[in-house]
Amino acid sequence: MAGVRVLPASPNWYSSRCSDASSDGRLFGFAARHRVCLLDVSAAAPTFYGELIGHTERISGFAFCRCPGQSSLCASSSDDGSVRIWDAEALEPVDEYALHQNAISALHWSPLVKDLIVSGDEKGVVVCYWHNRSDSQQFFPEPRTIFCLTCSPHHENLVAIGYKDGMVVIIDISRKREVLHRLRGHDDEIHCLAWCPVPGEERLSAWQDELQVVPSEEGRVPNGELTQYTATKKGCYLASGSKDQTIRIWSCTRGRSVMTLKLPPTKRRGGAIDPAVKERIWLTVHWPSGRSTEIVSSSFGGELLLWDLTQPGKRKWTLLGSSEGQNHSRIVFNLSSVKCQDKELLFSISMDRDVKCWDLSTLDCSWTMPSLGGFVYSLAFSPVDTGCLAVGVGDSMIRVWNTLSMNNIYDVKTFWQSIKSKVTALSWHPTKEGCLAFGTDDGKVGIFDTISSSAKNKPPQISSTYHKKTVYTLAWGPPTPPLTSGGEGEQPSVTLYSCAGEGIVFQHNPWKLNGEANDINKVIQDTNSIKHKLPARTEISWKPDGKLLALGNEDGSIETFQAPNLKLLCTIQQHHKLINAIRWHHEHGSQPELGYLIASGSINATIYVHNLKSVVEGTSESPLTITEPFRTLAGHTAKITSLSWSPHHEGRLVSACYDGTAQVWDVMKEEPLCNYRGHQGRLLSVQWSPVDPDSVYTGADDFSVHKWYISKQEHTRPPQGKKSIELEKKRSMQPKVKTKKKKKPIGKSPAKQDLSDATNGDESMKEMLLEENGVSDREGEKPAQEAEMPDKVSTTVSKDTSSSAYDHSSFSLPKPFVTQKATPVIKDPLKEKPTSYASLKKRKPRSILPFSTFMDHRSKDELHEDCLRLAACLKTKDNNEDVSPDLEDRIHLGLFTDRASLHKMIDVEGKHHLENGHPELFQQLMLWKGDMKGVLQAAAERGELTDQLVAISPMVGYQAWVSTVEAFAKQLCFQEQYVKAATHLLSIHKVYEAVELLKVNNFYREAIVIAKARLRPEDPILKDLYTTWAALLEKDGHYSMAAKCYLGASSPYDAVKVLAKKGDVTSLRTAAELALISGEEELSANLSFRCAQNLLLSRNWVGAQEVLQQHKTLFGQRLVFCLNELLCKCLSERNPCDQKSPVPPCYHSWKLNREVSFFDMVIEVWQNALGMDTTQQATGAQEQLRSIEHPPSTSNAHPKQVLYHISHDLTLAALSSHTATWDEAVKSILGAVTRSYDAGNFTLMQDICSIILPKGCDNLRHKLDSTNSQSMDACRSLEGFVAYGLLYDLWWNPPKDSSILQNPVLDPVPCPSEQTALERSYISNHCSPEETPDQTATEMDENRCATTEICRCETESDSTTRSLYLEDSQSKLNGCKVLLSEEIAALQNTQRDIAEVQQILADMIHQHQQQRNNLQESTNGSTQESNMQQSSETESDKLCPDSSQLTCKDEVKEPVTLPELTKQLLQAKQKLAEFPDNLKVFPFPDVLECCLVLLHAGSRCPPQLHQQASDLLRKHGNAGIYEKAARRFLKF
Length: 1532
Known about the structure:
By secondary structure, this protein is an alpha+beta fold.
């Protein structure tokens, strides 16, 4: 590429590192689409060095090797999944690998390890590749999208990685546990990471505050672990730039942020950006080498900032660029620097498509290299401002390049205002300086003023006449009618002509672009009296003197007209395909006759040159036809796209071609002189330099413009054979063609993700950005279609022609697809779908007139006969005769005769359709005929109505329309399309019918919408819909939706009930709130109470109180819940070994006074937390709670439910104690104790007695009214239960030293304290001592015998200790005298007798019912007998169920008769009636059970109690269970 000046393709956007400079300062490379462009930056001005070609998709990363001696090595990553290593100096590939499974998003070459390349992908996988040994290793530190990564310049194993979500991770690639730090601080994408080039973490003055650390915190890493590696090594700072508009400096050893820099709101200077385009931020950072305290970063609008980290205060930055226009105008993506001689240069790439070089010592821009973001469709040199080249590009911008500038070889101005589409055509005004006309892909024509002082921001003039398709050619020429009318000075001397894809040429008045443009075809037809249709125009060219106009046509012809009236002089019939380019030879040569040469190129590869001198100078009045060329230039192998005559030579032409080359021809000798092959794509435009005879400018679909020199080219003719194949291979390296269906969504990679962010979701802007960046579906992904546009091709080349590299015919095109109708010219295949074989073979739609069409495709003789018959019929018609008989056998001719014959033809065609099963075509024909009523009736009867028939039924009349809609609705119902049927009923205002239809078929939602929208709000059908739907939803379990329906039906009570039906906490709470809103306060209170009970079961007392506090009527329950919470706390503290609940308790943080009694503590909490301040409140709550009665507890009751009922009783007791009504308090306390006793939870009973009465009942008895016998009886009963608990406690809890027992007893019953009082199992056998005294006693006797020998070994000291213990036990057991009540023992014995008789009676009744049922079911006498025998045996067994246990082995009880049982029951009840009533009111522990326990205590029991217990057992222990248990103590 020596000696070639290039405007290269634009750098890729939204990549963290897609540009880099070599360490020797010679080359700067950046990724441009799927190639890497290299610039030689060693001199004062950049020069194009070459391109690295090999990737097939967009390049996402690029980096040079930093190791000495390998500065020419570089690496690139691509969306094609590969990483390639290159020799940049030789422009050759070195190595390639594809280890990633996902799109690669970041890449870096290690600055310390010469062969290590690190890359990361969008799934978070990091790949390290050592290319010298082809070894690799993968890491997966985080499952996040990687945005950037960079290797440490000081530690060869450290890599910093930035992620999309704002996290920064530092990994050590030499360790298995690779993550050293996770640096958290950013909250959005990490765009760039940069290590400080100087190692160490010296504290700078500006960082002191942020680095102050408490001594105890030394060595602690907030965001990661402080490893020995980082602690012992010398640290390094890391800078990160993020989308959150901040730069953070991180300490690598400490794992924390030490400085945060916020981007300042800088004011844009000299920016040329549409303010309507809202840009996003891309914050890239660069740490220049050798500068530990200075960082360069990008900013909002393209400015670059130099940050001084030592500067105090907020303003630490300096703006690069001292003068206006030096800065970028849009956001900057990459920064890289290199030391070149004595200066440090900084390179930046931006969205404005400029590559800039900055001198960091002066902060000024050294040079700017413009680039192109689209196909180069058009090139045009100004005829006035010599050397000024206009470039029309597919990125919707025009570049004006001053190629003669001495100070800046890339002096380029950009014009973009109001274009908004690809620039496909350019033309300079022949005499007015700076007047540039342009045409676009969307048919727009406009004129820019490029030289005025305000031109940079001045929008162009736009013609009010738009072409329908792409503008291909613009030309300035003399005015033609009607612009030639008027005096001199009233009309412009030249006008603008535009030719576009629809085949029309417009003449625009440059003075009045807002006026309507003229179609010159009208002038041509008028002047030449042409009646036939003119061909579609594809190219336009005026002879330089303005006397002749050449028009190229779609059919390959070229017509020449004479100005100003456009008289047709001749037609060139040489090409046979669409004309792409026409150029007239210049007139300033030494041979004036050459000025009549006209060169033309078309889709075929041959260029023809014609000499029109004889035609112009001839005197022929009629147009001539030329079929022989003056010269033929053959050699190209593909379509010709552009031509340009040399202004310095005579008869020298350059051509641009789709074969990827430009060819210079000696026209007179028909010889090729030079062939240029430097482009990497197909050429689209060419211009010969107006100042240098040896220079030519070409533009191609590789997004570049090349200036090359003819004398330096080694080839003389276009490539043929193998060379052509090589060029085809080169073109095949371009991005693959992708359809939109297979296109990855934007956001797949970081780059594409950002495009969607940049445009705020605007689809059109997305396409524009993608297109500008060279990856649009129209340019980047469909190049085969894109580049055909300037070649004015009427058909699209098959994709298969370029798929094979060895297909020699790949440059030849198939013949155009010819149609019967004249179609507009398709010069822009982008606007048309490519013609594929599949679409050509697609089945054609069925003809509506197949019979007549078939008749018109018979043999030629028959068709001729039709013509004669038709002429005869029409002659007959002229004579007012009937023509029908003449056409009976030729019905199809009715198309050309009268209406009656046409009706016959329609009837025949309709009959054929019905016979072939196509009623819709028959109906269409009848509609044409006007017989719609019959069609509607027939279709309704057959159930063949369609939407189309219903839509056109109003043509017949209102009634017909209504009946048709009703019939169609019924038809839809049969097809189960109920919603559609209802919609059609609405169209005829049958709202009720539509609603009912939907309701019957369970489309309630749709029915409600219609009813609510179309009926009155008070209409009862609406409420009926709501309630019916609610009932259905409730049945299916959709309670929330059902509640909404009830609310819609104005039935909040029902809504509340259905919400509460589920019974969970959230449902009950919502139902309660809903009831409160609806005014149902009582219902709300009930539901709140239920909700609180559920919360109580889950141990959430806080939530329960929140629910209850909404209702004043539940104040009493709040007290109960509060006491329950405090009681549970006390119980859990007494039993810390309880099994832990899976749900942790939720207690209030109340301050508790543990020094007072339990009741006093509870009352204090009530007053402080619940606001029970007055006695009236306490009295009201007491009355409220007394009105609530809970069922008696049983052994099957849930422990939490039992505890809640106990809490209720204790709350009443606490309220009574608060109001000093102790008579009521003792009854409530007794109720709580007996409830736990009845539930079989003996340990709970003991705990409650200990908590409520820690010192016994003496203090309570003193507070009672001794005259109140009932309260005294209750107190005695309470004392009995307290003593009962104490008795078992003394029995079950002997002293720890077992040697002091008089006869050590190994108690088989576990200690009650080892079992939980709250969460125990329902089965608590050991907690019902009355059920097991005999078993326990037996086991104790065995243990006593087993340990007799041990007792003999007691020492004297043990005897002393034992005597002390016995004295203490006896003193405590004396308190159990209350249990040995003679009268209560007699009462209990009588109650046991009654219960036993009642049980026997119940068993007899049950057996009798079973026997009667068996007799009724049995039909066999023997079966009955056996059943009776079995039942009698069963009866005898059941009458004495425990005979083996209650009597001796040989003793069997005789069956008891019913009279005897009745007599026993009567006697027992009479005996029970004799006892005083006060003994029966309150429960009491089992006296005989207590006697047995005292006897088991042995010597610990005082003699007096021992005797009293023995006497009671002898007198009342005649029941079986007690008799057996007492046998070892008593002799009966």
